[in-house]
Write a structure and sequence with these properties.
Layout: H1 3-20, H2 23-27, H3 31-101, E1 119-132, E2 138-153, E3 156-171, E4 176-192, E5 198-205, H4 211-214, E6 235-247, E7 252-261, E8 265-266, E9 276-277, E10 298-310, E11 313-325, E12 333-345, E13 349-361, E14 367-368, E15 371-380, H5 389-392, E16 394-404, E17 410-421, E18 426-437, E19 446-454
Helix pairs in contact: 1-3
Length: about 450
């Protein structure tokens, strides 16, 4: 029922009531009052007409809103259906991609970027100023060591490193003139068999301890090598299998390497104790023929365990060794064993070291046991949180190293110094070394300042 019909019904009821009133009551209403009442009823009717129109408009608006809502619901349903289809397509594509990564082609096709995009040169250079007791101070072009890296494919790599040094020569007398020496540090072809095995062949950095592979050059925070590293070959020509195997979900891993190499040799062919040549047996003789200088190659390897406690906190332990003959008669054995350890206590504290023990069978002195060890620690002052730029870029370093030649000569050295990080790869180092030995020719203290740059 509309508002207008309700009003008309009310008006009719009022008229009927008026007719039902007694005559004297009707006579009491004059024409003026009746006309006023008539005008009032007319105005109320007009007002009701307006209200009726507004009500009808509201009904139309409600119907339109309902239609829009229904249309929105249909569009939402359509979008949900499209999203489901898209999600299914993405899942199918991911499954296909994962399946494809597990399929290795029988004859892989070489990939196509140009060779210049796969070639990189890195390395380091050092310039120093120092003084050894008994000599004058001098500037030194310590070393220039470029490393060339070439990636033929994702699993085929080639790397080679050189050391270029400048020193006074022997022209005439009094150490006159100068000469430049260029030495090949290593050169290998690496083939990545899978995630756990890499094949390496060439002039390899030998994994006797970790120093040769991880701490030499500008990576070493002290300008010279630890004394007992002179008891070991740094590299050797041969072949190697190496890799790492994860252990659980905590980040632990076991690293391994096993190799065969030509091994040390004799400088004059005899087995006398002072003729050991740790790095001179490279397989190509002076007359251009191939051949080991003795009959049997050497074998060796390393096993390591890496255990991270939490980010920046970790411990690594390793044991390594090598054994083989060294004299031309192939009768005298040279072997070595190395224990290595490295500890990081946060980003600011590092402690590492090695213990080295060797066995050398000789013609003139039976078996001798050259040995030694070193331990090195570093602390970065950034750990003090002093908000001082000069202090935060400074690291204090210290090292103790000792060496015994297995006969009579012994040497002990203590080094204290600093590293100032101009950038992450540009270092300004300063050290003072106290060296004590019963060999007067090496019993000298010295200081060194050095600028090292890794690129």
């Amino acid at each position: 029922m509309t508002i207008r019909s309700k009003f008309l019904g009310t008006l009719a009821a009022g008229c009927a009531l008026g007719l039902a009133l007694p005559p004297h009551a009707a006579a009491a209403i004059d024409d003026a009052d009746f006309n006023a009442l008539k005008d009032l009823v007319g105005k109320q009717g007009q007002r009701l007409d307006s209200l009726e129109k507004v009500h009808e408009q509201d009904q139309k608006t409600i119907q339109q809103d309902q239609q829009i809502h229904q249309q929105d619901q249909r569009e939402i349903q359509n979008l949900k259906q499209r999203l489901d289809v898209t999600q299914k397509t993405a899942n199918d594509a991911q499954q296909k991609a994962e399946a494809a990564t597990q399929i290795q082609p029988v004859h892989p096709v070489p990939e196509g970027p140009s060779a210049t995009h796969n070639f990189t040169m890195v390395g380091d250079a050092e310039v120093g100023f120092g003084k050894t007791d008994g000599s004058h101070s001098a500037f030194v072009q310590g070393d220039f060591a470029p490393i060339f890296l070439f990636r033929a494919r994702d699993n085929i790599l080639f790397e080679a490193g050189f050391d270029v040094r400048l020193q006074n020569g022997t022209t005439g007398t009094h150490d006159a003139g100068s000469g430049t020496s260029i030495g090949l540090s290593f050169a290998t072809i690496d083939y990545l068999v899978n995630d756990y095995v890499t094949f390496v062949a060439g002039d390899m950095l030998l994994p006797l301890g970790t120093y040769s592979e991880r701490s030499a050059g500008w990576l070493n925070k002290i300008p010279d090598d630890p004394l007992p590293r002179g008891l070991l070959p740094g590299s050797g020509v041969g072949a190697q299998l190496r890799g790492a195997i994860p252990a659980g979900a905590s980040g632990q891993s076991f690293t391994y390497s096993v190799y065969g190499a030509n091994g040390p040799s004799s400088m004059d062919g005899t087995g006398n104790h002072d003729q050991l040549d740790l790095g001179g047996n490279v397989g190509l003789k002076s007359d251009g023929t191939y051949g080991n200088l003795h009959g049997s190659p050497s074998g060796g390897g390393r096993i390591g365990w890496f255990y991270p406690f939490k980010p920046h906190y970790d411990l690594e332990l390793g044991v390594s060794g090598q054994a083989g003959t060294w004299d031309d008669m192939d009768q005298r054995l040279w072997s070595a064993g190395v224990l290595d350890a490295a500890l990081h206590l946060g980003p600011n504290i590092e402690v590492k070291g090695e213990y080295i023990y060797t066995w050398q069978q000789t013609d003139d002195m039976a078996t001798i046991h050259p040995r030694g060890g070193w331990v090195q620690a570093g602390y970065k002052f950034a750990g003090l949180n002093l908000d001082l730029p000069l202090i935060n870029d400074l690291e204090l370093v210290a090292r103790y190293d000792t060496s015994r030649d297995g006969i009579s000569v012994k040497a002990d050295r203590f080094t204290l110094g600093y590293v100032y990080y101009l950038t992450n790869t540009l270092l300004f180092e300063g050290d003072y070394e106290w060296l004590e030995s019963n060999d007067p020719s090496v019993d000298h203290n010295r200081f060194v300042f050095q600028v090292s740059y890794g690129f």
